[in-house]
UniProtKB/TrEMBL annotation:
Gene3D superfamilies: 3.30.300.30, 3.40.50.980, Luciferase, Domain 3. Residues 32-389 form the AMP-dependent synthetase/ligase domain. Its EC number is 2.7.7.58. It comes from Actinomadura parmotrematis. GO terms for molecular function: nucleotidyltransferase activity. It is an enzyme of class 2 (transferase). Keywords: Ligase, Nucleotidyltransferase, Transferase. The keyword Ligase applies. Residues 440-519 form the AMP-binding enzyme C-terminal domain. Pathway: Siderophore biosynthesis. It comes from the Bacteria. NCBIfam families: DHB_AMP_lig (TIGR02275). This is (2,3-dihydroxybenzoyl)adenylate synthase.
């Protein structure tokens, strides 16, 4: 196992192997097998690009050899920040084949986040598009210190992906299936995001089992509308599950109905996954669309709580089944099953993938609550990590001594064994599926010379579920001429962080309410925003 990653105890690993969950197969080998069985089937469609399985397989091999030539070695970490383009899959499989480890950043990440990933993972390379969504990633690459930069598109002074893809494929030894295949990012609750190492054995198990749960066959067509780097569209069953089933991946550049509905019609899409706010947008747009959406069988919704009211509208409006997906990049994924009764699919967030997933619902002292009662969700299993990468101190708090991951989610389990998400105990904002660690944004605010203290909390929002509100106490010297909210936002942007982390509201405060032990009471602050929101709106400063 890669140093810095936490292995499963040998006894658990042996059990997962003996039970057949861990198959000793790598992602590179999986693609090889599917390509041999269905060489001419379409693997991926993105814009005008269409690659068969044979083509994707060959492109992955050629790029693996090209990356090896410029010095990327097995176990090297490579930060990959690509949008929904076909090259995403080529790069991912090239790295899997090489045994190098992609660290999947989101297109929204900026210099501070990328700089941190490069440094924390000690990355050998950084892979970017030239431009995407009005942003030039080469400018970002110049800001951060990357050892090598590979560009999908116009490379300027960097290395062009097409140049690496030009030579002959080399025969590379298959990496160890028990070793780390990739790293996902944690939504996080701390000042710095955490990296989640996933092995071939564990991730491939979750991906193949997810494809099975969703009934994928070689005739399925999966539309990847969310950013492919995120764990949900990547693996639940996502693009990797789709490829494992020999089916077709369609990558949408953006998830709006304008972009997605024509693709559903043209490619006869059968399944897609959305976060709740997008599902609401689709539900609003579908009745008036001229596009034929009748091929759609399953609309997955996950990443944040989807209300029962909205879930109940999916079949009448879109003519397909809703599937709720409650997962986390750390591992555990719960699904409602396609043949579950309608009320289970509408009112619950489903049950775990695996019979070997252990789920506990506990009180504040880690004691199991009574059946059906609400408590903290702890989990352990064949595809849930035992630790974040290079984070021993954080791991001691984030996992129990016997290896359960503390999800920070507050849930209850129904008599039928399905989970219902009731809330959250972690200091995180879930902004329509995008996770924001309060502490991270607070630290950036504290860097402003006028800011004495800052507390970031969630505010309920009918569309996004939650938005962010930053409470700020100014230093006495700054109170005469206080900075405007827009100025503080611009300051945060200037710190090089993803746009979704910029607070939606900034409220100046004189003091923060405190809990009994002297910590800032976020609960009272949330109540304060709720009161503020019910007052007639004052113009924001
Ligand atoms: C997915 O993964 P992450 O790592 O971005 O976020 C995980 C957290 C969960 O701990 C929970 O707080 C929240 O997101 N969450 C949900 C939810 N799905 C995720 N909360 C309520 N209802 C749901 N359906 O978000 C993710 C990973 C794989 C599949 C699906 C989602």
């Amino acid at each position: 196992m890669l140093p810095g990653a936490v292995p499963w105890p040998p006894e658990a690993a042996a059990r997962y192997r003996a039970a057949g969950y861990w198959q000793g197969r790598t992602f590179g080998a999986m693609l090889r097998e599917v390509a041999a069985a269905h060489p001419a089937r379409t693997a991926v469609v993105a814009g005008e690009t269409r690659w068969t399985y044979a083509e994707l397989d060959e492109r992955a091999d050629r790029l693996a050899a090209g990356l090896r030539r410029i010095g990327v070695a097995p176990r090297d970490r490579v930060v990959v920040q690509l949008p929904n383009v076909a090259e995403f899959l080529q790069v991912a499989f090239a790295l899997f084949r090489l045994g190098a480890i992609p660290v999947f950043a989101l297109p929204a990440h900026r210099a501070t986040e990328i700089g941190y990933f490069l440094e924390h993972a000690d990355a050998a390379a950084y892979v970017i598009p030239d431009r995407h969504a009005n942003f030039d990633y080469r400018t970002l690459a110049r800001e951060v210190k990357a050892r090598r930069v590979v560009v999908a598109g116009e490379a300027e002074e960097f290395t062009a992906l097409t140049d690496l893809d030009a030579g002959a494929p080399a025969a590379l030894p298959d990496p160890d299936p028990a070793d780390v295949a990739l790293m996902q990012l944690s939504g996080g609750t701390t000042g710095t995001p955490k990296l989640i190492p996933r092995t071939h054995d564990d991730y491939l198990y979750s991906v193949v089992a997810s494809a099975e749960i969703c009934g994928l066959t070689p005739d399925s067509v999966y539309l990847c509308a969310l950013p492919v780097a995120h764990n949900f569209p990547m693996s639940s069953p996502g693009v990797l599950g789709t490829l494992s089933a020999g089916a077709t991946v369609v990558l949408a550049p953006v998830p709006s109905p304008d972009a997605a509905f024509p693709l559903i019609e043209r490619e006869r899409v059968t399944i897609t996954g959305l976060v709740p706010p997008l599902a609401l947008v689709w539900l609003a747009a579908a009745p008036a669309t001229a596009h034929d959406l009748s091929s759609l069988r399953i609309l997955q919704v996950g990443g944040a709580k989807f209300s029962a009211e909205a879930a109940a509208r999916v079949r009448p409006v879109l003519g397909c089944d809703v599937q709720q997906v409650f997962g986390m990049a750390e591992g555990l994924v719960n699904y409602t099953r396609p043949n579950d009764p309608e009320d289970v699919r509408v009112t619950t967030q489903g049950r775990p993938i695996s019979p070997a997933d252990e789920v506990r619902v506990v009180d504040d002292a880690d004691r199991d609550v009574a059946p059906g009662a609400t408590g903290h969700l702890l989990t352990r299993g064949p595809y849930t990590i035992r630790g974040y990468y290079r984070a021993p101190e954080h791991n001691a708090a984030a996992f129990t001594a016997d290896g359960f991951y503390r999800t920070g989610d507050v849930v209850r389990r129904t008599a039928g064994g399905n989970l219902v998400v009731e809330g959250r105990a972690k200091d995180q904002i879930n902004r329509g599926g995008e996770k924001i660690a309060a502490e991270e944004v607070e630290n950036h605010l504290l860097a402003h010379p006028a800011v004495h203290d800052a507390a970031v909390v969630a505010v309920p929002d009918p569309m996004l579920g939650e938005r962010t509100c930053a409470f700020v106490i100014l230093r006495p010297a700054a109170r005469e001429d206080p900075p405007k909210a827009a100025h503080l936002r611009a300051f945060l942007r200037g710190r090089g962080i993803a746009d979704y982390k910029i607070p939606d509201r900034v409220v100046l405060a004189d003091a923060f309410p405190h809990t009994g032990v002297g910590k800032v009471s976020k609960r009272d602050l949330r109540a304060a925003v709720a009161r503020e929101l019910t007052r007639p709106a004052a113009p924001e400063r």
